[in-house]
Amino acid sequence: MRFSALLLVLFLLQPSVAIRAWADSPRVASPLAEVTSFETLLKLVADLSKSDFVPRAPIPKSLESLDYEQYREIQFRHEKAVWRNTRSPFWIETFHRGFVQRDRVSLFVIEAGASREIPFSTDNFHYGVPIAQPDTLADAGHAGIRIVGRFPETPDVQEILTFLGSSYFRGRSAATVYGASARGLAVDIGLPRDEEFPFFRAFWLPQPQAADTGQTVLALMDSETVCGAYEFELQPGALETRIHVRCSLFFRRVPEKVGIAPLTSMWIWGDGLQGPPMDQRPAVHDSDGLLVRDGNGDWIWRAFSRQSYPSVSRVAAKQVTGFGVIQRNCDYDHFADSNAQYHKRPSLWIEPSQKLTAGSIELIELPGAHEGIDNIGAYWVPDQLPTLGEPMELDYTIRIFPGDLPQQSGVARATGFSVTRDADRIALKVTFTPDAMRQDLRQVGDDSLILDTSLVRGELISKTAKTTATGDCEVELVFRPSEESPVEIGITLMHGGKEISERFTYLCPDKQPTFMYPQVYTRKE
Asked: Which pLDDT score, from 0 to 100, does residue 445 have?
């Protein structure tokens, strides 16, 4: 009687009050169950933004104390997947809370126009490790979701898209494995204080028909600063997977900075930086650079670097038609790691429906303790901050594919570089490889090549450009740092008054960086 009466009172209250009561106690009837479309989600989010933020639900103590290896032993039972015994081309599996995965998410499916909640159940998981107080897990809750299905012309069921942790999600094509990830939004990122991490509080997945080739995911984002209604339209592909994203953001307060369409990756060593002596792998990274196309159609390549301290830089472009983190080098020998398969990590490209204007691309490069931690971030920062009471609308597509962006044609690309130091001098050698649609650079001729270079905090000593027998062009800059700070470098190949290469940019450490690597990288075999 008391419980039923409480539900009646809540439904008679204002929506924001009911939402607060639900979020505070998941056992209270949830307005989330009323969501059946992006439009109904949008109304819910608008109401939620008018109420105070409700903190995340606490995680059971027995799960909080798990380490990484223990958490990995908790595996979803594939036979328990939602829609597994139907004609649906996609199934849904869930993640267990534990270790660092502490967010609790609600999960709903939309079938025949009605919303149905998928409750958490310990029966859906195999617990490979004994957990203290197992009775406390009955209401542990979902930590995230994964979508499994078949890629085109692929008979076996594979994992395609995962949402797990804050607003992070990762997708792949049939030709790639998981690598760099995307986020829904970044709030107050790259500032001299803690970043705020909005998180997805709930997901809704409409059941696809047997002949459908894509899956839609609706998501509710929440944080102290912002509430968001998201729609993700997944289209898996053999070579390229696409995720169309549209969202409406309602802000509770005006943040100092907003990062739009954030991408997250990992770069520990590779071109320009050697790894620890006991690790023989030439490179360890999910992506090796940031690619930007400005409003004029010009290309900017920002090769990743790693200082011994956090670095935040901006790529100047008045307009941006696309940007992404690219795993340009897909040669196995560049990584020599059959386990991690870095040569199969995907590139992620953000393609906005309209040009991004009045802002800039920002890049964060952190020292990073090891390859299990993402230390690269890239996102668009608009000059104009959001306005309270007015939703911010976003619409863009995330393209996921192996190697270079296919549409980057007509210009030579920086496909590799090295850094050597001698006394107070630094030599940077960059290899530019012509686009397959162009003649090789030998037909341009060394005498006709002009180097457009720039250095900040560095004194140029010499610069040369020489074509090779393979049709590439090797550029060498020798310079001297003018300060005890990294040197900002820019290089473009010119011919006949026109740019024939992308703009190579790099933040070169003035001294060889030193890092404290974990024992796994330094121990003797």
From this structure: 61
